[in-house]
Structures are given as C-alpha cells and as structure tokens.
Amino acid sequence: MKKTLIVSIIVIALTLYVNLNFIWNDGNSGLTEFGFFFIGIFLFLHLAFAQIIIALGLKNKFNAKKAILLFVNIICLILICIYPTGIYHPSEKRTPYLIAFNEGVANCSTTLVLFKNLDFKEVNVCFGTTTTIGTYKIHNDTIKFNVESLGKGEKFFYEYAVINKNKTKLSRYYKNNSLKRGNLYISKIKVD
For 13, 20, 54, 103, which has the most beta carbons within 10 A of its beta carbon? Predict the structure, then answer.
C-alpha cells in the first residue's frame, strides 16, 4: 500500500506540473525545457508501467484502497495523454490595439502586443521564452516604450518604435537610433 501511495503522489505531482506549467514556463532556456520534457516522458512511461503492475496485483488480491488509487492514477495519466500542455490555458483579458510579429532564423519569433489600456507585452521565443512587459505612449506614428519588467536574460529593450505609412511594418529603435533584428510586421491594428 505504501508503494502505491508513493506512486499516486508522483502521478498527481506530474499532473499538477503539466497543468500548471504556464506559471513557471516564462524565461526558461530551451535546454531546461528540453530536459523537463524528457524527465516528464520518463516519469510518464514508468508510472504507466507501475499502474499495469498494480492492476495485475489487484487481480490476485483485491484491495479497495489500492483500486481507488489506481483509478485516480489512471485518470490523471489519461488526462496527461489527452492534454499534454495542460487542461487550463489562461487567456488574455486585455483588448489588443496592435499586434506585430516577426519570424526569424530557426523558427525564432517575436510578438509585440500593444493593449488598449496602454500596456504592452513582447514575447520572444527562441530556444526558450522571454516576456517583456511595460507601458507605452503613441504620438503620431511613434510609439514610446516604458519597460516595467525585462524578460529573463534580456539586458535592455527598445526606446521607441515607428509605424510605417502603410501601417504594415513596425521598426524598433534604441536610444542611439540603431535598428535591431529588423522589423515586425503588423498583423492586427485597431484604430478608434
């Protein structure tokens, strides 16, 4: 019974890890996420095998407590199979004003979202995920950024950005007017 309880605790912990991954996912390096992925696969396979052994043991000698734990474990493992990225995915409550995106080398991408409440969020996905948040002000075609929190591993952020005349491109600049990583292409803009 003690081994079954330990296996059940590990199954529930794995289920919680998979379903709450969005909380601590930001800022992990790709190597860290790759390691966690293989640890998760290893645990899942071993736990599934342990459930088969427990089920075979119940066949010979029925124990109600073990049967309940086995049922809970199997439900948790099935949920992990059906929803490998978790059941719950928090959605953004703020209304976007502008969304700009660019995909670079090795499928790396940058998404900048300006919200109507004057907040912004930039998510960089390249061998890991970093998120920079802050506020912004728009004057004519220029967006001035005020960073509140830099993404993990980031040392600085753009001072401002300029929207082109066709409202299709967003060029981001540092203080010394130097351009970095090209342009972002505007996929959505709502002008009131």
Answer: 54
CA dist 185 and 168 (Å) reads 6
The identity of residue 144, as a single letter, is K
Closest by CA to 141, choosing from 82, 189, 179, is 189
Question: Cα–Cα distance between 33 and 27 in angstroms, integer?
Answer: 10
Q: What pTM was computed for the model?
A: 0.62
Secondary structure of 129-178 as H, E, C letters: EEEEEEEEEEECCEEEEEEEECCCCCCCCCCEEEECCCCCEEEEECCCCC
Length of the chain in terms of residues written: 192
CA–CA separation, 28 and 22 (whole Å): 11
Instruction: For residues 111-115, give the mean pLDDT.
Output: 90
Q: What is the pLDDT of residues 162-177, one digit of tens each?
A: 888 877 888 877 766 6
**Tell me, what DSSP letter sits at residue 92?**
P
Domain architecture of the chain: domains with CATH: 2-82 (no CATH), 96-189 (2.40.128)
pLDDT value, residue 115: 92
CA–CA–CA angle 30, 149, 20 (5° rounding): 50
